[in-house]
Amino acid sequence: MTLLRSCLTYIAVALFSMAAVAPCPALAQPWQPQNRPDVSGREAAVVSDHPLATAAGYEVLRRGGNAVDAAVTVAGVLAVVRPHMNGVGGDAFGLFYRNDSGTVTALNGSGRAGALATPAFFAERGLTSMPSNGAATITVPGAVAAWEAALERYGTISLAEALQPAINLAANGWAVTTTLQRDIGSSVRRLNEGGQAIFAPGGSLPPVGSLLTNKALAGTLTSIARGGADAFYNGPIAGTLARFVEAEGGYLRASDFAAHKVEWVDPITMDYAGGRRVHAMPPNSQGLVQLQQLALAESFDLASLKHNSAEYLHTLIETKRLAFSDRDRWVADPRMAQVPVDGLLNREYLRTRAALVTETAAAAVTHGFGETVESDPASGDGDTVYLMVVDKDGNAVSWIQSLFSSFGSGLVEPQTGVVLHNRGGGFELNPRHPNIIAPGKRPFHTLTPMIVTDGGGLRMTIGTPGGHGQPQFLTQVYHNIFTFGMTPQQAVEAPRFIHNSGVRSQIEDRVASEVMDELRARGHRVDAVAGWTATLGGVQVIFIDPVSKARRTGADPRREAYGLAY
Q: Is 0.90 topped by the overall pTM?
């Protein structure tokens, strides 16, 4: 009776405050093991993919900076200390919640293909599909312009102030961690000579505990701090990068850098059970897949299924396959291709799709909207970083930036220290596909930041690295919190799956072996994954308690994520 009375009181208070009811905290499943302690605060919180970046953002908040000030500071530090996953030479997307208006805005900081980027460019080189790395995969990097744009619209500090912690680390060094050694100990060998000189000066990554520096990048960041984004996209830096890419056989030129602009766009949204509204990035991001997966799952009574039971996992795997078939057919740059977002997010359409799920793994899954067009989407390694901030005024940022594969294109320009991404590998060469490469076009992007609101305002920021796994991981953690009542930290640590292709999935071995056996009996090919590996992402959460308004964080130990709050 005491437990029931506690829950009823909690729900009554939440309803009175006009907040959608989150799972009663007393019902958070006690059996769910927890590797790390909860980190919560009354006023503000920051979570990111590296403790040094989180600490830098925390200091900005404590000095009175707002969520955007802290987010750009964190993004700059991550560009240094997670060099294989993101950086000055990569792209970024951001979602921004404004507490005074209750609105969410979105910033598309992805770069475009150069003026020479035509299918003929690749045909002349004997390529019939997009390469996965090298100079021909380098589009204009968009992260730097996104940093500046975010601060100009919502920030209170200068870009120079925001970048100073990153400059200090690049110039003076940061410690090699066991995670960094595990992540890039082998991939440094595929870097060009300039990259190996920075990250593997003796032929291999320095040992754990030693310091890495990137003094050339410190100089580039200093120039950006002094001259703003213009210092990167015009003048000596752009010229140096363009000449380097051209010499390596790529299509970018200095004029392509000069033409780059970020774009403020409207997020795409859907309403879900519990009065929650989910906000995601529109195409060229795969954010619509995130909304589809959550909507498809609502056709099933997930709450009646045991968490990570065979029936539960089968349902999420099969609905994922349905959503991804639409993604692979349609997602492209909407400025240069028709993407039927409204049709793909239509509730009746999604109900008919959900009805296709049977008791066994489908032999094949096709999209259900429009004619069939063959697609071969680039896989990438999921080398991305995610960060989020909620400040004392209730404003929030959900931010993601990436190189795509480990060290992106595999090319580092030695004078600038810039690791250049391979996001252009997300294009298609099929002339019938909306994502076919074209001058000035943005490629398909896996980056999927997310914000959840309800009648009481901001409820959660959430995101993850992980390439094609991103919407899969976020769907699982969303239900861990809202369907199964886990705390944010429990939710990100709970064992999860990633579906790859066909009927193949990987599931962490903390899921019972009999569950995996039952999935195999249903036609799934399941491989158990041991330990805590980056293969299964790195989900981060800040959950706003509907009653106390405390900022409750979740930081994934599968990568280097850490949260701080006060």
A: yes
